[in-house]
Amino acid sequence: MLGNGENIVSKSKRARTNDNLILSYDLGGTNVRCGVVDDKGNILARSKTPTGNKPDPKELFARMASIADECCAKLGKKRKDLCAAGIGSPGPLNSQTGWLSETPNLGWKDIPLTKIAREALDMKVYLENDANSALWGEYWKGAGVGRKTMFILTLGTGVGGSLILDGKLWRGPDDTAGHLGHMTIHSEGKPHWGLDNPGNVEALCSATACIRDAREAAKAHPDSLLAKIPAEEMTAAYASECADKGDPYALEIFNRIGYYLGVACATLANVFNPEIGIIGGGMAGAGDKIFVPLRKELKRRALIVPGRRLEIAEAKLGDDAGLVGAAGLAFERFKAGEK
User: Which residues, in sequence order, are CB contacts of 111 under 8 Å at separation 6+?
Assistant: First the structure.
């Protein structure tokens, strides 16, 4: 096993025949999505497999190799024909050493993820934080095209975040920069389910937070639309449907989520002066229910100049942002000659 901080060198020596094709993965809490992506950002084939509950990393990567073969077969190719693999994974992690320090959503801690992936896939592997991948996808092919300074907040099971400053992905000295979901925006806010950091963006604005709040509202208001399904079947999508049908308690949940996102975006505007803030993930589908209060609070809290500059936009690539971005970043590293 490799020690933390040790450089990883691929053992695969076979020549790859398609330098314009790459294998890309988006490693999520529910599913692992896989695609073959070309150097123009087009997804040519795709497949997926369930992540499972706190999966064994080696077992999961064995399945990831199988879905890679499915993707390649659709194009009449094999894994050996592709130049490398890019993987967007929850973190914190170090993209250079390939070491994943901790990911509560998967139950992994202190594992040499790139080494495991290379052994399973038998090819070069470039590891990235999943939110970095999503933002790079939007920067390359989506809502961020033509801009140089931006951030993303991905609203899913958790809240991912990433920053691009002056056209460069901002990693920080330990490759842990951009965890915007862990910014504290309410010092006395609700607790986080996995970390001792109450009142952070993730604890207040994620789909998990939405479900928690919807269950609490349903229990407190048994005559509401939210209360018409069992608590264990509650989803953020159902809460959104209730809000669309006029349930005041569901509307309050989404208004509060938008409010706290506005607080977060105003802070980012004042600190970084970005051109665009991109909101992605499944919760972004709530639309104006969160975007209207978000923009209202942003305008109220941001300084005039950066507040006026900052455009808030929904991600354009949807679920494909992570696949496209992981591929784009892997292409950058492969073409730079990174081992």
Answer: 57, 99, 100
Question: Partners of 161 in the beta sheet?
Answer: 153
**What's the pTM?**
0.89
Shared-domain flag, residues 94 and 61: yes
Closest CA to 25 of 54, 59, 49, 56: 49
- What is d(CA 139, CA 194) in angstroms, rounded to the nearest whole number? 30
Residue type, 20: N
Residues 233 and 168 grouped into a single domain: yes
On the 0-12 / 13-18 / 19+ scale of CB atoms within 10 A, 188 is exposed
* Same-domain check for residues 228 and 283: yes
Are both 296 and 168 inside the same structural domain? Answer: yes
* In contact, 95 and 129? CB cutoff 8 Å: yes
Containing domain of residue 121, as a range? 21-129
Same domain, 232 and 290: yes
Over the stretch 4-49, which tens digit does the pLDDT of each residue have?
444 444 444 445 557 899 999 999 888 999 999 999 999 999 999 9
Both 149 and 291 in a single domain?
yes
Tell me: do 165 and 309 sit in the same domain. yes
**DSSP string for 269-311:** HHHH--SEEEEESGGGGGTHHHHHHHHHHHHHHS-HHHHHHPE
